[in-house]
Amino acid sequence: MSDSSVAEHTEHADRPELRHHFADEQQQRNAAALGMWWFLGTEIMFFGGMFCAYLIYRLKYFPEFAAASRSLDLKVGTLNTAVLICSSLTVAQAVRAAQMGKRMLQVKLLLATLFFGLVFLGVKAYEWENKYKEHHIPTFDFNAKDLMRDNQHLFGLDKLQNDPHALQVREAEIQQHSQIFFALYFALTGMHAIHMIVGVGVFSVITWMAWKGRFTPEYHTPLEIAGLYWHFVDIVWIYLFPLLYLIDRRPGA
Amino acid sequence: MATAAVTTEKKNYLNAEYGIRSWLFTTDHKRIALLYLVSITAFFFIGGFFALLIRLELLTPAGDLLTADMYNKAFTMHGQVMVFFFLIPSIPAVLGNFLVPMMIGAKDLALPRINLISWYIYIIAGILYLHCIATGGVDTGWTFYTPYSTMFSNTRVIEAGLAIFISGFSSILTGLNFVVTIHRMRAPGMTWSRLPLFVWSHYATSIIMLLGTPVIAITLILVVLERTLNLGIFDPTRGGDPVLFQHLFWFYSHPAVYIMILPSMAVISEIVPCFSRKRVFGYNFVAMSSIAIAAIGFIVWAHHMFVAGISLYSALVFSFLSFLVAVPSAIKVFNWTATMYKGSVSFSTPMLYAFGFIGLFTIGGLTGLFLATLGVDIHVHDTYFVIAHFHYVMVGGAVMGYLGGMHFWWPKISGRMYPEGWGRFSAMIVFLGFNLTFFPQFILGYLGMPRRYWDYSHMPEWQGLNVLSTAGASFLAVGYLLPMAYFLWSLRYGKIAPDNPWGATGLEWRTSSPPPTFNFEETPIVTWEAYEYESMPLPEEVTLER
User: Fold this and answer.
1) Radius of gyration of chain A from Cα atoms?
2) Rounded mean pLDDT of chain B?
3) How far apart are CA B28 and CA A2, in angstroms?
């Protein structure tokens, strides 16, 4: 750290935001943005591993996945999607406010972002609690009886009524395979929620920096790259929502 | 900075500041490189200790030195320490960290604080792994194969998995820093086609680090979740698929091989032109072959799984693609050889390591083709043939390159010359010891000795080759300890190094040894191509051993 302070005294004493090893602000901003874009690339690969597992098991165990997906609360999921899209809007507006040099507007929009982020996490916690009550959390007394009851035809259980042994085998399978759906559901939404928590942490700092007036029309790189991260986490949810909630939801299915 | 130059002792990055805080809180890429150097050396010796246990156990056919469980832990921790805590960070985090900014004429990496954070992450991961070793260790094999790792192993799988998960972030941040730096921080005139090949290779390595590492991160997280919450994703008795684990694991861990070998190729591409006094042959091909290796390396992973029950058609495709990745590797080997052709070749220590690299990597690479051949793979799968193959690539390739690079740039890093005679002597010891250790393992594998066996008393005729291998390992140990000893010796007693002891062309040689904190007195403006050795006369003070 001390070397940068030396540099600031010798090289960029008049420009405190410009770190010692950059030639100008443009280069610094481009470096930070490129770094964040590549980091988001790694995040895509991180979620990609789980999406890959999801894809394989969805192809293998489609009826179980469809039935388990239908048991998720569509209204609450849709609400959360809307909340998250709103939070992305407020982030984009906050960047705009920084570009126009409006400090209080920035702070208000960032507080709104934090509010939407916390609402999302609260709703998620509510959903998870319901899963617990429904015995849909793997290993915590997991039980797929309700899925079998509601999806007799989809599982082909109605055809097996005369064959108790085959019925028993199929029911045991459904119990196991729907557990895989919920394992992936919790892994995916859990990882997403961890990213949301990190995002709320980051934006708390960003909001404080905005309040202190750190961002000017010329320099607001931290806000911009934090915004990129937030949009990414939002987009992950945009993919998770149809993959988890909307499998085979067509009317009459 | 400029005023400091007139005082008696010239200011450089080593004497700019003193005290432990000036190291632990530094953001200077050169100091962070040295932090990494010390830490990966420690892990190298820990990993080497486990290798020693393995070789001593195999000295006799009976399982007498270790118990079977201890042996399982020894080879597991040898693999995990060497792969995740030594080989992957070795050249990028030490030499790459030190050299990439200097080679492109930058004052530092683009994200210096993230560079420091990556070292701390590495240390946290390392301490966690050491704790895992100290409290009983792990026995799954370095690959964490399910369902063994998730359902049967009673060792500290979770801790080891998390340690490697965390160390992955260190790798990601290093790669991120290199990519951003190479894109955004090049000095005026340093165009892409003038970049040293060292930088091209590190660029390719960084892309693999960025796109591969997150996949093993999520894979290990799934293993940890499966173990703690009993999810069943990889449990075949509950509809899970253990082969899915292998796909996800090798999607990273095969490209990880290229994380280890590409930086080593980077080093060789610098050493060979310098000690042949010739422009590198086919610059564009060598540069693009790094990118090709990184790209094709991502689509060959299932050749680790030919006998794991994948379909014949996918096995055929992956076999073909594995052959394909040999092409860019061969391009490099042919180009290095062509660079030497009619060059003014000198046999200095770094060049000896480069020779060693080229020969051993060729053997390692060609035996890789045996393994990519479906029929042969069934015969030698999970035998010592595989062990010998990848040690030829990772030790004969990656470690040889690392040592060659350490010798080549030691004058720049420390400002001192190492003793050339000892250098050449230990390079020979390493080469001979290496071949004595691992060549017999090709034969053992072909004869059918399986890997991971601790007792071969049913086949006592394998003992002779195993004794040779253990004897070679002792030579190898001497060959690794010697450079450490004379490097440390040279810090105090070595000859003061000139700025450019080899008459090399790179930008890093156009600043003082050791370099000042910001690398250059003023930002260089590049007006020449890389490797213009024909127009670079040897400086007066330079004497190269012929």
Assistant:
1) 24
2) 94
3) 10
Distance, in angstroms, between B466 CA and closest chain A CA? Answer: 40
Asked whether the predicted pLDDT for residue B1 surpasses 60, the reply is no
Cα of B77 to nearest chain A Cα, Å: 25
Collect all residues with Cβ–Cβ distance below 8 Å to B503 and sequence separation of at least 6. Answer: B274, B277, B536, B537, B538, B539, B542, B544
Decide if B228 touches A, using CB distance below 8 A.
no
Chain B interface mutation, best of A1, A3, A194, highest count of B Cβ atoms under 10 Å: A3
What's the domain range around B372?
18-510
pLDDT > 70? residue B7: no
- Map out the domains of chain A with their CATH numbers: 38-245 (1.20.120.80)
The CA distances from residue B220 to A189, B116, B167, B239, B535, in Å, are 17, 25, 12, 20, 52
Contact call for residues B51 and B443 (beta carbons, < 8 A): no
Task: Encode pLDDT of B63-108 as tens digits.
Answer: 999 999 999 999 999 999 999 999 999 999 999 999 999 999 999 9
Q: Who's near B347: CB < 8 A, 6+ residues apart?
A: B275, B424, B545, B546
Distance CA A67, CA B474 (A): 62
Which residue is it, tokens 């994200």?
B111
Select from B77, B61, B247 the least CA-distant residue to B159. Answer: B77
**From CA A169, how far away is CA B118, in angstroms rounded?**
51
Are the C-beta atoms of B532 and B503 separated by less than 8 Å? no
In a 13 Å sphere around the CA of B462, the CA atoms on its Cβ side amount to 26
Which of B267, B334, B254, B265 shows the shortest CA–CA distance to B295?
B254
Alpha carbon A189 to chain centroid distance? Answer: 7
- The nearest CA of chain A is from the CA of B181 a distance in Å of 7
Question: How many structural domains are present in chain B?
Answer: 1
CA end-to-end span of chain B, whole Å?
A: 39
Residue A4 near residue A18 (C-beta atoms within 8 A): no
Contacts of A173 in chain B (CB under 8 A): 239
Secondary structure of residue B107 in the 3-state scheme: coil
B239 touches chain A (CB under 8 A): yes
Is A35's CB within 8 Å of B114's CB?
Answer: yes
Tokens 């009826």 map to which residue? A63
Domain holding B152: CATH number? 1.20.210.10
Given CB atoms, is A56 within the 8 Å cutoff of chain B?
yes
Asked whether residue B340 is assigned to any structural domain, the reply reads: yes
For residue B542, is pLDDT > 90?
no
Tell me if B229 and A27 make a contact (CB, 8 A cut-off).
Answer: no
Does B517 fall in a domain? no
Q: In which band, very low, low, confident or very high, does the pLDDT at A7 lie, cut at 50, 70 and 90?
A: very low
Best of A46, A59, A185 to mutate (most B CBs within 10 Å, chain B): A46
pLDDT value of residue B541? 63
How many CA atoms does the CB half-sphere of B181 hold within 13 Å?
A: 33
**Any residues with CB less than 8 A from the CB of B9 and at least 6 apart, and which?**
B15
Sole residue written with tokens 């039935």? A67
Distance from CA of A104 to the nearest CA of B (A): 30
Q: Are B430 and B479 in contact (CB under 8 A)?
A: yes
Using one digit for the tens of pLDDT, what is the confidence trace for B260-319? 999 999 999 999 999 999 999 999 999 999 999 999 999 999 999 999 989 999 999 999
CB proximity A50 to B under 8 Å: yes
pTM higher than 0.80 for the full model?
A: yes
Q: Which residues pair with B383 in a beta bridge?
A: B450
Residue B501: inside a domain: yes
Q: Would you say A203 and A111 are in contact if contact means Cβ atoms under 8 Å apart? A: no
Tokens 């208000």 map to which residue? A108
Find the mean pLDDT for residues A215-224. Answer: 93
Residue B546 domain flag: no
